[in-house]
Amino acid sequence: MTITLPRSARLSSSADAAPITLAVLDMAGTTITDDGLVEQAFLAANEAEQLAADDDALEAMLDYVRVTMGYSKIVVFRHLAGGNEDKAQRANAAFESAYRQIVADGAAEEIPGAAAAMAALRNAGVKIAMTTGFAVETQTALLDSLGWSDIADVTLTPAQAGRGRPFPDMALAALIATETESVANMIVVGDTANDILTGVRSGAAAAIGVLTGAHTEQQLKDAGATHILASIADLPALLGIALP
């Protein structure tokens, strides 16, 4: 299923359209399954640092976590810790440790068709940037667990780019790192409203939502998605690229 929104013409094959040469892709929920794993790691962080005082506070915390999916995790924990930087840092460390253990246990898997889609894009000359709100070590663990250490041209985290989502820093850092000519040659793809906002704020040719992760079709539309796909597996077709 592909829902094409008004700015879809920017991905057309017309003579005056800029070719897409860079795809900036989110990880958890977009190319890698989430299935509640991020929330599971947040619950481990809460257990370690007692961020929520009672069940009502815990539910409010999880609501905030869901709204801010895609953010740099330390930014989320600074909010949850009420500005206590030491507590936020400890909670973030507990979260990253818990998520890496989840990865080590084999719970994170490829979104069906993700690797094939990325291979098709790269074969067609489209560079791949993998971005995440996790720490560098967790991103590396995720990629290694799937045998994806060489699947992207560049990998980025907020710590490497400046600021995390919904700011445009990671997308623009990817553009610079890959020497992409213009934002008109770049697309941004993700499963959260914050991924979409990153694409919109970066000036990318398209901000493409996928329905395999945290946020709904309506949330992605409200954030400004130019296209919504059932899955990353549908991305090559949107770009007119055939699978091998």
Characterize the structure shown.
It is built from 11 helices and 7 strands. It has helices at 37-49, 55-67, 73-80, 85-104, 114-123, 136-145, 158-161, 169-177, 193-202, 217-223, 235-238; strands at 2-4, 22-26, 127-131, 154-156, 186-190, 206-210, 227-229. α1 (37-49) packs across α4 and α4 (85-104) packs parallel to α6. It is globular. Helix content is 44%, strand content 12%. The longest helix has 20 residues, at 85-104. By secondary structure, it is α/β, with parallel strands linked by helices. A 7-stranded mixed β-sheet has the order 1-7-6-5-2-3-4. The model is unreliable at 1-10 (pLDDT under 50). It folds into 2 domains: 2-34 and 109-238, HAD superfamily/HAD-like (Rossmann fold, 3-Layer(aba) Sandwich); 37-104.
Key words describing this protein structure:
44% helix; HAD-like_hydrolase_sf; 244 residues; 11 helices; single chain; alpha/beta; 2 domains; HAD_sf; phosphoglycolate phosphatase activity; Rossmann fold
Can you give the helix content as a percent range?
Answer: 40-55%
Largest sheet report: 7 strands, mixed
Mean pLDDT: 87
> Rounded to an integer, what's the Rg over CA atoms?
17 Å
CATH architecture tag of the largest domain? 3-Layer(aba) Sandwich
Query: Total number of helical segments?
Result: 11
Strand order of the largest sheet: 1-7-6-5-2-3-4
List the topology elements:
Blueprint: E1 2-4, E2 22-26, H1 37-49, H2 55-67, H3 73-80, H4 85-104, H5 114-123, E3 127-131, H6 136-145, E4 154-156, H7 158-161, H8 169-177, E5 186-190, H9 193-202, E6 206-210, H10 217-223, E7 227-229, H11 235-238
Parallel strand pairs: 2-3, 2-5, 3-4, 5-6, 6-7
Antiparallel strand pairs: 1-7
Helix pairs in contact: 1-2, 1-4, 3-4, 4-6, 9-10
